[in-house]
Amino acid sequence: MSFFRVLGNLLRFDRANWKAIVLCVLAASVFWLFNAFNKKHVATIEFPLRFEYDQGKFIPIDELPERIGINVSGNGWDLFRNQFGLKLSVLVIPLDRPLETTKIVSASLVPLLQPQLEKLTINFLVSDTLRLHIDEKDFHKFKVNPDFSEFTFEDGFGRVSPVVILPDSVVLEGPKSILHQIPDFVSIMIQGESMSQSVSEQVNIVMERQNIVVEPASVKIMFEVGRVIDFKATLKLTSKMKTLPSDSIDAWFRIPAKREEEFKNLLAEITAVVPVQTPDQDGVVKPTIRNSPVYAELIRIDTVRIKIPQR
Hints:
Elements: H1 2-11, H2 15-37, E1 40-52, E2 58-60, E3 67-75, H3 76-83, E4 91-94, E5 103-105, H4 110-113, E6 121-125, E7 129-131, E8 134-147, E9 151-153, E10 157-159, E11 164-166, E12 169-175, H5 176-179, E13 185-189, E14 192-195, E15 199-204, E16 213-215, E17 218-223, E18 225-239, E19 248-256, H6 260-266, E20 271-274, E21 284-285, E22 288-290, E23 297-301, E24 304-305
Parallel strand pairs: 1-4, 8-13, 9-14, 18-20
Antiparallel strand pairs: 1-3, 2-8, 3-6, 5-7, 8-12, 10-18, 11-17, 12-16, 15-17, 18-19, 19-23, 20-22, 21-24
């Protein structure tokens, strides 16, 4: 009961008493804070870095370090100002030979850092080594190829015209070694689901690496969509080989429905050619198609079995 009685007496204090208590607590907190700041402390601060090199000729392959952790000791006030960036300037590190400089031993930066930290003492640097990966800046022109792996048509519909891409090539700017690893073309993803209408849209070119700049950043892609049919055709089979198992072969095409008659009239000109190459272990070779019109998409073609001479 005595506890509740004391609590009740406290709650019956008037506002003047509460103000006095708050002021006392505040004064004690400020006194404690000032006293703590006047003592010596140890802390880790992040010091900003900037590397200086000819950015017109060189470019980082990986992001360069932007900060370095430094364990320091000193007066609490000095630590507070540095910790919150009130006095930190950027340490500029010149790179006279960017291609040859792959690492910087952190200890070599202490003479540069200490004057900027004034009254603080450097105990050690958190990172032993700064890793750098800089390459020559290069430019290359690449063909643009559409990727239809995420594009589907409505049943009975398909592409009935060639794909037009404007412009049909782009220029990439980036690290030389990275550009040389890219194939001769840049793929752009064409997205659509159950499409039955012709396509004319601007598509952004997205590169996996952020340090590669694309010019222009987007291209326009256009093609017609219409009704299509699957057409089975028996084609003449030719080859430079002396003997073939047959003089014809079956192939299946997807063509615009409105051009069926035109395609039938062209069948005599379309041939299947058995390439002069070593067949697989079973003697199977896949022929290639010649003289097929651009609007005809080859879906599948039978294979040819060649007799392999016994050695």
